[in-house]
Structure prediction request, 262 residues.
Amino acid sequence: MPTKNQSAIPQDASPLVRRLGRSVLLTSEEVDYLETMQVNQAAISKGDEFIHDGEPLRVTFLVRRGWVIRYRITPAGRRIIIGVFLPGDFIGLHVNFSHSSIYSAAALTTSSLALIEPVRILEIHRRFPVLASGLDWMAVRHANILSEHKVSLGARTAAQRILHFMLELWVRLEQVGLATAKGFELELTQEQIGDCMGLSTVHVNRSLSRLSKENLLKIDKGAVRFPEISRSTSFADFDERFLMEFSAEGDSLGVNKQIPKN
Prediction:
């Protein structure tokens, strides 16, 4: 999985810098700006809600560590998870800060968030146009993820939905150095997977058992792996172009360039 020269990126760089640095040759000035804009940080305990539906949203959140969810509660009291956010992901990158939030967000795990004032994002667009394009692409990619989830809800079986979602998480985690060619550590319960995929916990359990029996997905004490990746991607109808990384040079990242090789 070839990557571009990352000479300006230190080994202890934040997930955001690592993600953008995979596809853009960042200068030292750009790296410094991205890191310093994350100086205002907050530690969030597992289960704590830090964005409340209907309350003002004054800053952009950037996940530095941990897993975070964005969700809505239906009138009937059911939680629908509308996004899982991993290190390097923004929440509210392009929001209207004069209005209230239309969703809630909480930490799935003990997490660290950077609280970024809107002016810092606007400054990127003024001073660093390539970086700005990279941030805009991250917003486009998030829309792509939501689109794929909609396809799953309308056209994929429960087993396909879950397997597609696990493959998505694998690629996203690998892009920030948090997954290996063997797989990744899952931080979602079966109930939470159901809330993401529109399935009951019983249906999730049955589907996971089927996927395991067919050697398409194995989860052992939270460790996720794909014993036969070609069969898994085919069964799940997984085309990872919706997760392609930003490129400032017009080169295309094909589907087989991102899936970690077994």
